[in-house]
Predict the 3D structure of the following.
Amino acid sequence: MENQKNSCDFSSLGVSESVLRVLREMGFEKPSEIQEKSIETLIKTNRDFVGQAQTGTGKTAAFVIPLLEKIDTDAQSVQAIILAPTRELALQVENEIQKIGKYTDIKSTCIYGGTAYEKQIKALRSGRPHIVVGTPGRVIDLIEKKILKLDQAKICVLDEADEMLNMGFFDDVKTVVKAFESKAQLMMFSATMPPQILKLIKNSFDNPLVVKIEKKTLSNEDIEQKYFVVKEKHFKEGLSRLIDHASEMYAIVFCRTKIETKTVGDDLKNRGHLVEVLNGDMGQLERDHAMNSFRKGKVNILVCTDVAARGIDVNNITHVFNYGLTRDLESYVHRIGRTGRAGMKGKAYTIVG
Ligand code: ADP
Ligand code: MG
């Protein structure tokens, strides 16, 4: 007899043909665990939802697919709002909507701070999006300016809720949630559930379906983990040797501070490596330039801090280098989870003093 669990695919979750077609094109053969446990309920009901699963488990598609199924393309109003912690993440989510929604008539747009209003206002006014993805501050800003109108919105998604909390956006998040409470379907996705988030769920979510996928990364057998004990003054030399020894490499080097990313980046460049640096001191243009250059493979090494790396979704990372120990275990797990994804092998090397 056929095992029902193994035979689960997207079509049995109630996903329509126009979306299934893209998923096939994208090579999504079967739903990830969080997708398997969320998509069907989210398509078929308006129940509030809380999904907890670590980074890289496919949380985006877990809500994007149901959203695409639920939008009424005949109506020209914003029907769903998604809050994301950073511009990069918001853009990634919107990109996923555009990709998976390729064969639908669903329109979306992305709004975020740190950049001029005109284009975003125009996109909201004349683009008539059904779905808006945004960072909390700019979303509230445009609601207050009465440009973003959410009176017809029936879904509100909080993506990477714990990151929004870490970045100090939680009051804004709560403000948005307040406007939707009991009027719309609330969905939250988060890798961790700190107390403030649990409190928000308790106060504002209506009998949510809670799905928690247990962590697995620490024992991820696809990641080879090693550490190298080196005197602090020889860290750069040590890193450079590890890099020289790697044959095929597409790597992220994590540093502890912004200053360190600069000195390590410069050192690697001087040694002839192709490197981009990403840190919070850089302007948006510079950051975009660095990310594009890394994404497109013009350089194969990205040197960054934890904060700068937040939300970066780059596949096929072969090596993660930790330049010094991480603050805590959680951030170590996050970092090394950038490699060894989707069944590929990865290496995580840590240089310690
Ligand atoms: P999270 O938000 O949980 O960190 P993402 O939604 O960014 O994870 O997904 C991580 C990666 O996995 C993305 O590159 C995405 O395209 C890919 N992915 C998601 N779902 C599937 C699937 N069902 N099959 C194959 N790849 C998938
Ligand atoms: Mg995500």
About this structure: The first strand starts at residue 49 and ends at 52. The radius of gyration is 21 Å. The pocket of magnesium ion (ligand 2) is lined by residues 59-60, 159-160 (CB under 6 Å). DSSP finds 14 helices and 13 strands in the chain.
